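Technical appendix A lists one of the benchmark inputs used to test multi-chain prediction within the project. The record comprises two sequence entries:
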Amino acid sequence: MITVNHLSKTFKNPDGSVVQVLKDVNCTIEPGEVISIIGPSGTGKSTFLRALNMLEPPTGGEILFEGENILAKGYKLDKMRRQMGMVFQSFNLFEHMTVLENVTYAPKKLLELSEDEAQKEGMELLRKVGMAEKADVYPSQLSGGQKQRVAIARALAMKPKAILFDEPTSALDPTMVGEVLSVMRQLAKEGMTMLIVTHEMKFARDVSTRIFFMNEGIIYEDGTPEQIFNNPERSATKAFVQRIRKEVFEVNGKDFDLLGMETRINCFCIKYNISDKKDAAISLCHQVLPVYQETGGNITLRMTYSELSGDTALDFMREEDQAAPARFQDESFRKQLLSLCKDIVEEPTARGFRVKLML
Amino acid sequence: MRQKSKLFSLLALAMLVFSACGSKENEVVINSEADLAGLKVGTIAGSIYDIQLSAREDISLHLFSSTSDCVEALKSGKVDALLMDEVVFSKADLKRLGFKRGYQLDEGIPSAFAFQKGDSSLVKSFNAFLKEFKESGGLAATKDYWMETEVLRPEDFPKVEEYTTGEPLRYGNSEVLAPIAFYENGVWNGFEIELVRRFAAYMHRPVKIELMEFASLIVSLQMGKSDFIGGCISVTEERKMQVDFSDPFYDIHPVYFVRDAEAISAKSSSWEGLVNSFRQAFIVENRWKILADGLLTTLKITFWAIVLGSLLGIVLCEMGASRRKWMRRFVSLYDAFMYGIPMLVLLLIMFYVVFSKAGLSGATIAIIAFALNFASASGGVFRTAVHSVPPGQMEAALALGFTKARAFIKIVIPQAVRVGLPLFRGECISLLKGTSIVGYIAIIDVTRASDLLRSRTFDAFFPLLAVTVIYFVLAWLIGFVLNLLNKSSK
């Protein structure tokens, strides 16, 4: 239904500098798909979604909607938008209209529905999102969750082929997120084509047929929820879905500030509430670092913690290495280390070789 | 709030009534120049007396812009004496006002019409006409009729042949007082006016009489707005430098007028007095028609200035939101300009400089000037109103499939109106009140009309009360109409 080729978008700052938010986005969206778009903030998720219905005109590439390039000159944008609903983070209900009018206004004006038809359909949709009771109320009297449900009904009233959701729960009180997500779940079940920019990982995992992980202005990884959440192919994806936090030290030669390192490890452990691992981590560093320092080179020491799984690890990496330093073959040394950590993983990486100590 | 404003207007009315009835009763006697010492003397600003009196250091000089203001000042005791032309007050006037004549200056001062400097042909024609008219005895008869008749009745006014084709002679008149020149039933009359009419007939040309402030008369002549000017203009050496005078046709006799204590104490300030002064102000000779005409003029200027100004305001609002820097800069410059100069100055610039040769009527120029000013004000209102609507509303409408124009009209404007309407109403009302200055460019609006009534009756109370009420009602009406528009648009 929608095909995106080499989509790019650059913004010009008032000071003249140029920011490229979307670099090269490619994807195909088929009818009935429910796609969640996840990724760190500032990587162009919302910009991509808003480009799809031209609220944010892209600067390059093409978007084909049902085979036609919507970026072409003379393309009837308003006709396309009628078939592609949108739900906003800030709801954007028409403040001067009642709930029912919000839902019936566009069908009356754009689909030329009679007042009666529009009202009948509007009430049905409001019933569906649980807002029929508030049909004659103005938006200012509704809670955030209620507003968002009305906004979904408003989008549905145009009988769109797809709906774009731009962080639909980000502006909501945690207590109201559930009611909106359950309406969206129901829609997904009914087979509505949906694109959802969201930070609700559990929801994305449960409801989506596909996940786009966006990073650095592109769709960094694209796959089923199973693939993305359980077996991500790329480390940035993994870091994101497992919510991995890290502290990195560059160790250059013998003069490295060990005491400074201890302080930073201490802070990291306090920040993520893993102070029980602090002593072991520091002790391991004191034992392993000299092994590396003997042979020289630039050593990267990384302490990581996954907020999702609770896994904590110390990574030692050196670019010149093909294998772990010889000392790791020594049984007594390994035993000594294993008394402080659960496991020692030795693995090659794109750049050099890594020894991972699982705490 | 509403209660308070009612109370306040009642209080203001009461003050007006008291000021109309009460006056001090200390008799001032002026039998010679020496008696003037230490007195407060009033006269018209820019007149020949102004120059004479300002030479004396032992009196305090008070200058006013019109005869009726002078009268009010003497009535209310703000001044002790007025130096004015003898002909200003008839005996009946003096009796009614409670004034009497004091010391009279010996020599008369010749008075004439003034023409554009260097344009000798028209002056020559006038002098030839005057000579002929004098020799035929017409001048003496005319003078006699206007100056000596006890009660001037419109049905007795001399008829003068009128021409309707050809280029009109434009006569700028500053004086509004019987019997020299006065405005009644929509027509100018009086001694000088009859001379003007006879001269026009002599020239076989129609005539156009325009009312101006004394101070702007000479400017008007120099700018070519008028062909000749009059209104008790005395011939002085200084003025000869700037204009060419015709041969003088009558003498002005300056007289000091003072309050007559006897007459004042005899004067009744009863209900009957009020009724009588009401009759004098509005009923006699259908004087209310002057006010009605003025009201129409005020409405016309206000209405068109609002309509044109709003259209221009929309353009300015659009330009202010433009992506082009020079457009935005133009708008902020325009706003700064309109904000920074007084409306009256803008009006005078338009009348005397920008459109001095354009041949537009005063009312048209006033509409243009007020519309230009209103454009800035309304543009600001529109900008504020549109900005008050969150941009998400527009996006939501676009996302539903409305075109940009339709989304703006159907979604943004209805919400912007809520914020903008009270502001817009305020601007409209201040425009309405602002139009009261158009008298400066020879337009008789409702304010100027009340000036005319005052100068005819020398009574300020009812004419001022009438304009107060008229403006109050109009302001309320504007609010009412705009609210109605707002409701019907919902």
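The mean pLDDT of chain A is 90. The longest strand of chain A covers residues 18-29. Comparable benchmark entries are summarised in Table A2.
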